[in-house]
Amino acid sequence: MQDLLDRVEAYATARPERRHIVISLGDLIDRGTDSAGVVERLIEGVSGCETIVLRGNHEQMMLDFIDASANEQQWGRTGCFETMASYGIDAKSVLLERLPLAKVRQALPDLRRAFLAKLPAYHLNFLRSCPLHVTFGDYFFVHAGVRPHVALDRQDPQDLLWIRDEFLDFRGEFGKKIVHGHSPCNEIEFRHNRINLDTGVCLGGPLSAVLFEGSAATVF
Q1: CA dist., res. 37 & res. 40, Å (int)
Q2: 30 burial type by CB count under 10 A (0-12 exposed, 13-18 middle, 19+ buried)
Q3: Choice between 135 and 79, residue whose per-residue pLDDT is larger
């Protein structure tokens, strides 16, 4: 990510007369060794650019855990151990001490308190403030996608964070071209109605970006 942002900053610096906007499609955390570092870097922003960080389903799962929502246990199946470790919490040890599984839920309040004690308040506030979508020109940027036949300004937040097949398989128009991640592919997918930037970095693939200039969209 740092290498990519260095290239973006160099590009923006060489064109100071233009307006430059960097949009992250979310999923900053989980399945990597330095979630805390990724969050910190994007909070810093990108020199010469406006920086917009959208919320992904992984950030939402973390917030659900922090807020003790009905979905608080979901995060445990999708990368919370790595994220907590990046903030200095050994979550596996805390949970294993409460085995059998029936007692794991009893450990969640202690784990939540421990995590909040290590999680910087400005990190939490930043993640809470991340919007679910943003639009510029003919493009609608979102983490997962949108539900077909529903107006873009009436989308369900759950779909914006989680949708897959109903969105990916749709061949019609959405009103704007959707730029999304969430569903890993081997290389950036350019479709007539959407662009998928998730090239599976969490699976060992590259971290990808697209440059939008006017009506053109090309690999950066």
Answers
A1: 5
A2: buried
A3: 135
Give the separation between CA 92 and CA 89, rounded to whole angstroms: 9
- Helix, strand and coil content of the chain, in percent to the nearest 5, comes to 40, 15, 45
Helix (H, G, I), strand (E, B) or coil at 91: helix
| Residue 171: partners with Cβ closer than 8 Å, 6 or more residues away | 193
Residue 174 to residue 189: CA distance in whole angstroms:
16
Beta strands in the chain (DSSP E): 21-24, 50-53, 133-136, 139-142, 177-180, 189-190, 194-196, 210-213, 216-219
For residue 33, the tally of other CB atoms under 10 A from its CB is 10
Res. 78 pLDDT band, cuts 50 70 90: confident
Mean per-residue pLDDT, 138-160: 98
Domains annotated for the chain, with CATH where assigned, are 1-121 (no CATH), 132-220 (3.60.21.10)
What is the rounded CA–CA span in Å between residue 129 and residue 53?
9
